[in-house]
Amino acid sequence: MRDLVEIGMGRTARRAYELDDIEIIPSRRTRSSKDVSTTWQIDAYRFDIPLITHPTDAIVSPGTAVAVGELGGLGVLNAEGLWARHGDVDEALFRLVQATEDSEDPAAAVKVLQELHAAPLRMDLIALAVKQIRDSGVTVAVRVSPQRAAELTPDLLAAGVEILVVQGTIISAEHVSRGGEPLNLKSFIADLDIPVIAGGVGDYRTAMHLMRTGAAGVIVGYGYTPGVTTTDSVLGIGVPMATAIADAAAARRDYLDETGGRYVHVIADGGITTSGDVAKAIACGADAVMLGEPLAAATEAPGQGLYWTAASAHPSVPRSLVAEAVDQELDLRKLLFGPSADPRGVTNLFGALKRAMAKTGYSDLKEFQKVGLTIRG
Fold this sequence. Notes:
- The protein is α/β, with parallel strands linked by helices.
- The protein has helices at 62-70, 89-102, 106-117, 123-136, 149-159, 185-190, 204-211, 231-235, 241-259, 275-283, 332-337, 349-359, 365-368; strands at residues 4-8, 11-14, 22-24, 40-42, 45-47, 51-53, 76-78, 141-144, 163-167, 196-201, 217-224, 265-270, 288-291, 306-307, 323-324, 373-375.
- It has a single domain (19-375), classed as Aldolase class I (TIM Barrel).
- An 8-stranded parallel sheet has the order 6-13-12-11-10-9-8-7. A two-stranded antiparallel sheet has the order 1-2.
């Protein structure tokens, strides 16, 4: 039964929970972390760790996408970002870094990003970036917005993209538009021969609608990062992640029954800053996590210690700051797998996930989704 709270006469709201509000309960069984598997598979593509990168230029260049893929995750390049608009991305990033150093006004860096994204998309640059990833032998994934998915996808397929991520801050299977032809996600996906991951969503109903479009995966959340994303301040929209993930997992279960066995993956995107958050997201029902700001610490991240989301470059309603996230001190391998001397849970992210699974007695990700949970008092 839903936990409804009266917020005024005749008006109720559902009580929901963030990942910080819950804890994982150990079971009577433990095992060695060497006996734990973190592999997962979406469609024909198998990965060693349940990691998808948030598609922001701050952490994903073609080179970083290759590095993530070689370490067992899935790097997602933004097909509408800087690598699709500028031949010299290093110069564009230098302008952004200078803006953060020369001004204390947080709007200054956002304005530079808006100017950089005002440059037209160039398919030759997108194809070149995709080729660099494809030639390495790792799985090629790119992100497009719902508004430009139909326009860009044919060229992306021709370039060799293997997984398409259709992602907006908030996405639905039904978009009503007065001018122009809205994207019919169901027919769009039906015409493709590659898996599509779509999102973000924050509730059971929308997750179920996206699953019924034929999406192979559904993104839950909108990449919320404390001190970086401002969707809650700008639009008043928020997604308490523990509840949102559990709701989407319930939709996945019901859709599995409805279709007689079609499984749709749930990807958690938001509120995940530590290895403990990764473990709790899987425990709530996620199949994989989409990480952004935690990866900004990697020396391979192109943002040079800065972090922002794609929503920062919106021409009229930006919803992300350009934040100085961290000092870049660790290579990506150590960030993901350790060893670590930092006790805060910000390094060895997936080594810690294996340890959490081992301490609670579970040997794979699907089993770990059944672990007991408790709410903080």
